[in-house]
């Protein structure tokens, strides 16, 4: 794609687990594209142009279906509202709330990698074959997403746990591949130790989950996760990038 006229050395590193459901490969792709762009003096006309190239490139290299939603936060930082409509893809970027995410979220790795392309492909096949259960679950997810958009705009973070529960219920109707023994164990464990809600990251089947927990219960929940062999990852909101 770049066709550089001189040699180079490229070194990358990541704290995101492989198959963690955190958009790690998308972030890495965006990072490399930005680095090459700076080196070779290429400026992107829009965020959408860069995302489209990254999306197509990664799908070709991985030989698996890829979405576009993971690339936008890697390009822009901040808290994104991403909309897919007949006109195309729209993105609004906000600063993370001063209260909410940082005080309540715990990111945990299940220890099991996942394969997002395969999980999502199962859902795609269900839609093409007009499986009404899957279609209804997707409509439910769309409704939850619309409610989350309103919540973000109004900053009603106390209402987020209920919507995360609805999202999980709809997601598990799509395909059994979205959960796993590790996820179910962590789900039960976090609930028993005081977490108010549970969110599977990415396409599930393993990878990471986010726990919504009152600040007073943070240490109890973290310790319980670690005691049972789960890895608590360092995570914090990121401001919009310049």
Q: Roughly how much helix do the residues carry, as a percent range?
A: 40-55%
- Radius of gyration, CA atoms, in whole angstroms: 19 Å
Q: Main sheet, how many strands, which sense, barrel?
A: 4 strands, antiparallel
The amount of beta strand, in percent, is 5-15%
What would you say this structure looks like, in words?
The model has no long low-confidence stretch (mean pLDDT 91). Helix 1 (24-40) crosses helix 2 (47-62) and helix 6 (132-154) packs antiparallel against helix 7. The chain has helices at 24-40, 47-62, 71-76, 101-104, 116-128, 132-154, 160-174, 181-192, 218-227, and strands spanning 79-85, 88-94, 105-109, 197-200, 208-212, 231-233. Strand 4 and strand 5 form a beta hairpin. The protein is an alpha+beta fold.
Any chance you could write out the topology, listing elements then pairs?
Elements: H1 24-40, H2 47-62, H3 71-76, E1 79-85, E2 88-94, H4 101-104, E3 105-109, H5 116-128, H6 132-154, H7 160-174, H8 181-192, E4 197-200, E5 208-212, H9 218-227, E6 231-233
Antiparallel strand pairs: 1-2, 3-5, 3-6, 4-5
């Amino acid at each position: 794609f770049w066709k550089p006229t001189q040699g180079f050395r490229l070194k990358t590193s990541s704290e995101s687990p492989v198959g963690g459901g955190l958009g790690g490969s998308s972030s890495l792709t965006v990072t490399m594209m930005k680095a090459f762009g700076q080196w070779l003096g290429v400026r992107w006309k829009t965020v959408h142009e860069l995302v489209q190239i990254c999306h197509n490139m990664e799908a070709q290299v991985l030989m698996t279906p890829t979405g576009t939603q993971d690339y936008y936060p890697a390009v822009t930082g901040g808290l994104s509202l991403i909309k897919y409509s007949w006109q195309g893809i729209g993105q609004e970027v906000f600063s993370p709330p001063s209260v909410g995410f940082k005080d309540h979220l715990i990111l945990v790795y299940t220890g099991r990698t996942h394969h997002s392309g395969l999980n999502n492909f199962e859902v795609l096949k269900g839609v093409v074959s007009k499986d009404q259960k899957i279609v209804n679950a997707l409509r439910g997810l769309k409704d939850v997403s619309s409610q989350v958009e309103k919540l973000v705009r109004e900053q009603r973070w106390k209402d987020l746990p209920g919507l995360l529960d609805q999202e999980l219920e709809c997601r598990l109707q799509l395909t059994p591949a979205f959960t796993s023994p590790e996820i179910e164990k962590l789900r039960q464990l976090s609930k028993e130790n005081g977490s108010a809600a549970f969110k599977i990251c990415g396409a599930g089947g393993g990878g990471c989950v986010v726990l919504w927990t009152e600040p007073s219960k943070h240490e109890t929940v973290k310790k319980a996760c670690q005691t049972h062999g789960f890895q608590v990852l360092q995570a914090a909101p990121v401001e919009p990038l310049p």
